[in-house]
Amino acid sequence: MPTTETDPSAAPDWGFVGHYVGRKSLVPDWGALGQYQFIADALMEIARTVIDTAQIKKGEAVLDVGTRTGNWSLLAAEAGAKVTGVDFSPGLLKIAREKLKDYPDARFELADVAKLPFVDASFDAIIDVVSLMFGADREAAIAEMARVLKPDGRIVWTGWAGGDAISEAAKIQIGTATEANGHPPHPYSYWGVEDEMRDLFGAQGLDIQMIKHPIAHTAPSAREFLEGIDQVHPTSRACSLALEKAGIFEQTMEKMIGVLEGRNEDREAFKVSRHFVVGIATRKH
Ligand SMILES: C[S@@+](CC[C@H](N)C(=O)[O-])C[C@H]1O[C@@H](n2cnc3c(N)ncnc32)[C@H](O)[C@@H]1O
After folding, report:
1. What CATH number does the domain containing 266 carry?
2. Is there a domain that residue 27 lies in?
3. Which of 88, 157, 235, 272 has the greatest number of CB atoms lying within 10 Å of its CB?
4. DSSP at 112
5. Residue 208 in domain
6. How many structural domains comprise the chain?
């Protein structure tokens, strides 16, 4: 089992997984806001599904896009891969390098997924555990991943199927925050909508398969669910700071709670279900 940097004594007292955000990052440095490590721990199920789906073999060259602190690069290295992680946060890469210091083949580069510093056909597998959805220009990221992928390689990425209560609440939060900041309306992308993904990967000569996995989020109440996320999630923190500055934090929170309560599956507390998606892209033959 990989070790993460979590201090269990400071953890929120209920569990959740993930949070949808759109295609342009709202947070310049994921190490600077929130406490993402708590979410990373909860993402273990998704990460393991990605690693299993990628079927990494000993000696393969694996690229982990948006590696953050290298948790899932470590899983790939443990499977025998020569792993390379990229991220655009220098502080997080420093932690990743330290974490994988016993793996001499592991390397970590400061880079945007949409502009990868690697020669063509370098990697057998490219893995993404909920990173592409947060910051990447989809067309450019897919073109770059296709370029650095070996002819028989595979890209395994993650997304949210969308249409669920949490995605809808997040749209309100991000849309209102970006507007309050004077940014143009936020373009939403879950990396989980099959027709869109087929077109985007298809344009780079890649076939795709997407598998949906159910997941449920619970908390004592919808408000506590959102407040819990806001303690730890960098993008939620970034949005909340913008909303507080604009004096519209509470009214936005009320709107989000309304959406979550409208789809609540638990009369006594709070529960909503949704699907995460694991996609596999391979070259068309
Ligand atoms: C939600 S975190 C997930 C990190 C990691 N895969 C995990 O599961 O712990 C998203 C990460 O992707 C990185 N990221 C987002 N967009 C990126 C981009 N376009 N290029 C490189 N890194 C990016 C962020 O800095 C952050 O570390």
Report:
1. 3.40.50.150
2. no
3. 157
4. B
5. yes
6. 1
Q: Strand order in 107-110's β-sheet?
A: 107-110, 82-87, 61-65, 123-128, 149-160, 270-283, 206-219
Query: For ligand 1, what atom is nearest to the CA of residue 43?
Result: 8
Confidence class for position 208, pLDDT limits 50, 70, 90: very high
- Domain assignment of residue 1, yes or no: no
Which among 54, 47, 42 has a CA at the least distance from the CA of 15?
Answer: 42
**pLDDT at 122 exceeding the cut of 60:** yes
Please identify, by atom number, the ligand 1 atom nearest to the C-alpha of residue 92: 27
Query: What is residue 268's three-state secondary structure?
Result: coil
Sign (positive or negative) of CA dihedral 53, 84, 6, 20: negative
Check if 160 has its Cβ closer than 6 Å to any atom of ligand 1.
no
The angle that helices 71-78 and 44-54 make with each other, rounded to 10 degrees, is 40
The answer to whether residue 24 is domain-embedded is no
CB-count exposure of residue 251 (10 Å: 0-12, 13-18, 19+): exposed
Mean pLDDT of 207-213: 95
Q: Residue 178: which domain range? A: 36-283
Q: Which atom of ligand 1 is nearest to the CA of 128?
A: 6
133 CA distance to ligand 1 middle (Å): 9
Is the separation of the CB atoms in 196 and 279 below 8 Å? no
Residue nearest to atom 15 of ligand 1 (CA): 135
- How many whole angstroms from 213 Cα to the centroid of ligand 1? 21
